[in-house]
Amino acid sequence: MSLSFEGRVVLVTGAGGGLGREYALAFAERGASVVVNDLGADTKGGGKSSAAADKVVEEIRAKGGKAVANYDSVEDGEKLIQSTLDAFGRIDVVVNNAGILRDRSFARTSDLDWDLIQRVHLRGSFLVTRAAWNHMKNQKFGRIIMTASAAGIYGNFGQANYSAAKLGMLGLANTLAIEGRKYNVHCNTIAPVAGSRLTETVMPPDLVASLKPEYVAPLVLWLCHEQCQENGGLFEVGAGWIGKLRWERSQGRTVRQKNQPMTPEVVRDQWDKICDFTDATKPTSVQESLQSIMTVLSQVESGGEVGVNPTAAAASATSASGINPAEAVGQKLPPTTFNFTHTQCILYALGVGMSTRDPDHLRFLYEGHPDFSCLPTFGVIPSQAAMMDGGLTSIPGLNIDFTQVLHGEQYLELYRPLPTSGKLTSETTIADVLDKGSGAVILLDVNTYSGDELVSYNQFTVFVVGAGGFGGKRTSEKAKPSLPPPKRAPDAVVIDSTTRDQAALYRLSGDWNPLHIDPSFAAMGGFKAPILHGLCSFGFAARHVLKHFADNDPSRFKAIKVRFVKPVMPGQSLQTEMWKEGNRIHIQCKVKETDAVVLAGAYVDLHGASEASPESLTQGGGLQSELVFAEIGRRIKDLGSELVKKVNAVFGWEITKDGKSAAQWTIDLKNGSGSLHKGPCSGKADVTFTVSDEDFMEVVMGKLNPQKAFFSGKLKVRGNIMLSQKLEVILKDYAKL
Predict the structure, then answer these.
(1) pTM (2 decimals)?
(2) Domain Ketoreductase: where (predicted)?
(3) Contact (CB, 8 A) for 101 and 43
(4) Most buried residue, 11, 77, 317, 605, by CB count within 10 Å?
(5) Helix 124-139 vs helix 160-180: crossing angle, to nearest 10
């Protein structure tokens, strides 16, 4: 089937002759609406004429095609795109082809020679593409061609200005390919060899005549078609031949050790090996290019042995022989010890967003507090050495590239509240290794002890990019599963702001990865700025649950499971959505500013929770009303004295279910600062209400008028019936709680 561009709108710059003209004619012949842009300048950028563009438009129209001319400079990118929109209503394809030459040897290159080339080639391509970019993103389709040159790739005498601009266009194209990928906006680069006004100045006439532009245009059309998924490619093309280029890198040599100076003499002595391209690698991204550097950094800083060829180790990590589950599963890492005082507990609490602004946080921030405690999620800190101290390098069957290791999921279970100081010992086992095709998943089980007593259990789920395909199983019964939240509105939502220094503070708890503090290191990893630690967001979400559903009582905490989805930037706000089902609180954490989910499939298990959401209690046979009484208890704790002044009464409640008494509650708003307890009143209640669990919730939610409930017999009252009017003070604004 032939490739059609019917309905597509194409802008070709520099289309008055040579390659640009050929592109315009070819696109139009296949149904595209074409904007033929040409300033009409000479090869050095001088002069201006509409004749060249007009002539190409006439050729297209004579063949029944659709085309308009544009005479603007590419430095007026906005005008070019606007004229395209005015003519055809959209923009689908931009071919950045316009160019000039001002060849000089480097010593003779003037400022004007340099600047004019950069303005036309690099800046002009930037301005035209930028003007089209958002239109392409919004319509979820776009194809962009950058025109580089062999001079840019290899260099060429007398073309320093031109070479720099052309290679600059390649760098621009590579980044646009990354940024546009998710919007179906693709960008590729060609380095054409064809007869044109520019090449006739550097090639013999007979060669110019044989290198016809029509031998280049088919590649451009294919790269711009919706069927083509090529993105970020660089192609040399000419005379009917097309070749794709990629970078090659030697295996390299590590020339430093921890606490040893790195000297030029060491570099000199290893020079031949540094430059040896035997078994060279072919990196295709910033991440891949950093594999060797990251491997060396990790191993040197941890004091481990550094291989002479870290690139070779990285390359073999992705091969099938790099992973052998039969060897790895069951292997134990060297035990690690963690000595700490209350200082580490407090520092961790600050790192996950606790503040003295909230009085409830003081028990985690002040060692002199009568209830001073360690946050439950501090339990990941003693065990994280399994991930960070390089112990995995000693495990047979795990020949992996540690720069490609991502922390995918985390499970933490406590068997007792964490101590606030002491010595903990962690023992790590490779629980399982899974083959996910695109990567390998390693399950690390870490048991942490205080003496002989088991304190906590962690399961780290790590994903090794590119290490799959070794023929292993895809699932494991040993994995702690993540679970989706219920399909209903959350029972509670908490929004909490991180600070610009959140990552800088959290890293003091032991995660020293420079990705979270060093802007240049983060940039090498593909991030605009240092990102927040996933386990920091983990701590934020856990304490939101602890406060909302467990009254900040760490003894109520049992376990937490999360799956890390996307990074958080320090300073963004975390929105934790919570669904209560029995003693399990399902959670989902988002960045409020972007609505991007950062923690998914997550939940917290609590010990002995008395309150529950109406939906979950209905499903589990419990009482819907318990959530309301729990909230009344929290309100009395916060506002008890004020409520005693307003109400000055003792209320008794008898809640029934299926016609039988199911629970009794006493609300004392007469004595002291008020209180709530489950059970009958020890003295005499001023008024006692009897109502079914279902009808109670109808009243609380405003669906059933209390007076109608009373007269219909659904609400029975004993004692001072006039006090029922004060119920509103107690139940007020329940829906907002």
Answers:
(1) 0.47
(2) 8-201
(3) yes
(4) 11
(5) 10
DSSP output for 498-514: PPTTHHHHHGGGS---G
CA dist list (Å): 619 to 12, 488, 607, 612: 64, 14, 19, 11
| CATH class given for the domain over 9-245 | alpha beta
Q: What angle do CA 354, 557, 590 make, to 5 degrees?
A: 55
162 is catalytic: yes
Burial class of residue 620 in the structure, from the number of CB atoms within 10 Å of its CB (0-12 exposed, 13-18 middle, 19+ buried):
exposed
Q: Which of 162, 215, 457, 506 is catalytic?
A: 162
pLDDT above 50 (res 147): yes
Q: Residue 537, Cβ neighbours under 10 Å: how many?
A: 28
Hunting for tokens 């709680």 — which residue is that?
A: 737
Looking at the structure, give the CATH architecture of the domain made up of residues 325-609: Roll (3.10)
Distance CA 681, CA 689 (A): 12
Which DSSP string do the residues of 343-361 spell out, in sequence order? Answer: HHHHHHHHHTT--TTSGGG
Other Cβ atoms closer than 10 A to 623: 23
User: Does the pLDDT at position 339 exceed 70?
Assistant: yes
193 pLDDT higher than 60: yes
Q: What are the backbone angles phi and psi of residue 249, rounded to the nearest 5°?
A: -135, 140
Query: Residue 418: exposed, middle, or buried by beta-carbon count in 10 A (0-12, 13-18, 19+)?
Result: buried
Q: Tokens 């991440």 correspond to what residue?
A: 287
pLDDT at position 613: 33
Whether the domain at 9-245 and the domain at 325-609 fall into the same CATH topology: no
Instruction: Map tokens 């008028």 to a residue.
Output: 705
Q: How many other CB atoms are found less than 10 A from the CB of residue 127?
A: 20
Give the ranges where 302-424 is alpha helix by DSSP (H). Answer: 310-317, 325-328, 342-351, 362-365, 385-388
131 vs 344: CA distance, rounded Å? 52
- Per-residue pLDDT, 321: 40
Provide the residue ranges of all domains of the chain, joining segments of one domain with +.
9-245, 264-319, 325-609, 615-736
